[in-house]
Amino acid sequence: MLTIDKINKNLGGRQLLDQAELLINPGERVGLIGPNGAGKTTLLRMILGEMECDAGSIRMRGGVRIGLLRQEIQDDSQTLMAMTLAGDPELTGLRGERDVIQHHLLDPTRAAEHDALVARLGEIDLRLTTLNAYAAESRAAAILTGLGFAPEDPSRPLGSFSGGWRMRAQLARLLFWAPDLLLLDEPTNHLDLESAAWLENHLKKNAGAQALVIVSHDRSFLNRATNVTVELENGRLTRFSGPFDAWLEQKAMNLQTLEKSAARINRRREELECFIRRFRAKATKAKQVQSRVKMLAKLEPVQKAASGVGPPRIRFPTPPACGMEVLKTRRLKKGYGDRLILDDVGLELKRGEKIGLVGINGAGKSTLLKLIAGDITPDSGQVLLSERIKVARFAQHALETLNPAQTVLESAATAAPDHFGDTALRTLLGGMLFSGDAVKTRVADLSGGERVRLALAHLFLSGANLLLLDEPANHLDMAARAALEEALIDYPGALILVTHDRDLMEASCDALWVVANGKVTVWEGTLEGYLEQAIRDEPAGGASGAALAVQAGRDPRDPREIRRLTAQVRDRLRAETQQARKRLEKLEKEIETLEAEQGRIQAVLADPEAYADAARESLKNDVARLGQLEGRLLEAMTTWEALSLEVAAQESEAESELARIRAGEG
């Protein structure tokens, strides 16, 4: 379907693509990944034909229709439905032509054209039938509903929607057209969790009918929506047959192989160089020296991958202590004008609890967070916070409050308490991935993801022990999302999280609150169970399948039993691996100590003065000790590896059992 043949692209003095090659076959669902700024969006625009290659070619099979998710809308005056239908130019063109012909048939001055007009009208009606045009409005309405639009929205003009909803409209337009090759650049950025799940399901249902290229930082979405992964790195495209997680595992294996190869070649290089240095001046060794010089010249260097650096890690400061009961709401009610958003909401939150807040856009998630934070007042009812509770809320508007003229360090200082010195501030910013000279960068020069991390730093500097996070992962790349996920897992305070990133919510939250029909209900089940309900067809009356299930607060797969069995498996795993984990921790500390001593002795032995006659006794002791260390290290590492494999096997067995429980097999 699509062939990319040795293309080059230089943009703004940067080489984005260098002899890049790729083949995309019909029906393939490709996840295009790579660091920010690598050139992924540029590549999509080149495939569409909006940008040209500096060298090479991009070839498309004849007649292939390509659609790209755009960031702008030209006409705000048309209705949402009209804009969606206009996504299919053939459909709208034929409908327009049919209207003109019907008008001409009523014009007596065109009687001579009557037969030709009737014949053309018959051709148009036949083609419209083939295009299923008579169900076009219902198909468009189903897509709009799946993306979260209300039943009355299709008749509204686009100009009445916010920017995020207009992006959903662009996505609806593209999905309605269903081109042969669909290019999606960050399609979930403006979606809630439910709409992202619907989109994922919609793309799966059309699998085989069209090819996809998806650029996304949402790891969960890529894993579920794609079956091919293409990495754009250092100007090259590398293809892997499998979703993101499978590619990640393969890349780790490739990196390990590369590092072993590099170590082996470097050892050989050192041996050859050592021989050359020792015997270069000896005439009797001249032939051997020249032989080794030639061997050294033939050794090709192995370039280490840039990703060999460990993943980033965000560190949150420990929040102040608080009581067991963090939050209570009593008969909370809030509306805007004639529209009631929340009605009679009663909730309780305990210390250390982490809640995922779900519900379709407009259900009242952000309103609830604003009420808890005290940013707005309820129409009636109360929000009761315990003593020593300090609340901090993160939303996307927090990025707009950052002063673009300040540096990262200056910006953070404005939010820091008085006792926070420069060293403590730099330490915290280092924990938010701003290290070294990065703290001197002006806010105006930060990327979207960097601004999110700085806004989060402001949040943590506030000393809050109740975090309200509204889409904190937006604009973060995969590495930063993974770091945020680990940080939220380790965070000892309470939090309520709204996010469309399924992995982030599943990993960091222990319970779900669902906002629907003015109520907030504890969901007695899994996130997967909730989303299965959320993507079902709309029943009569306009309430979604998820909203109806929420009224009973039940997951249809007997969630209480699932949770009970899951807890049993986890408790058993914890008990069975407790002793092994303690031994592993002890061994890791011992290995670290042994390696440090080994490194010290090796440094001594690398010093020529260590071989002087006066140091002979000390040298003998160091050599003997080094032998002892190497023996003990080998023994410790062997034991550590065996224990690690044992624990991994038990964890794998437990995961398999958990998967069977979730699937209802036992």
Helix-strand blueprint:
Blueprint (H helix, E strand, L loop, with lengths): L1 E10 L2 E11 L4 E5 L6 H9 L6 E6 L5 E3 L11 H6 L3 H17 L8 H17 L5 H11 L16 H15 L3 E5 L7 H13 L5 E5 L3 H7 L2 E6 L2 E5 L3 H36 L6 H13 L26 E12 L2 E12 L3 E5 L6 H9 L6 E6 L5 E4 L13 H8 L6 H10 L16 H14 L4 E5 L7 H13 L3 E5 L3 H7 L2 E6 L2 E5 L3 H8 L10 H8 L6 H47 L10 H47 L4
Parallel strand pairs: 3-7, 3-8, 5-6, 6-7, 12-16, 12-17, 14-15, 15-16
Antiparallel strand pairs: 1-2, 1-4, 8-9, 10-11, 10-13, 17-18
What's the short version?
With 666 residues, this protein is α/β, with parallel strands linked by helices.
Strand content: 15-25%
The CATH homologous superfamily of the domain at 325-556 corresponds to: P-loop containing nucleotide triphosphate hydrolases
Helix content: 40-55%
**Shape estimate:** globular
Query: What is the C-level CATH assignment of the domain at 325-556?
Result: Alpha Beta
Overall number of strands: 18
Question: What is the gyration radius calculated from CA atoms?
Answer: 31 Å
Taking the sheet with the most strands, its summary is: 6 strands, mixed
Strand adjacency order, main sheet: 5-6-7-3-8-9
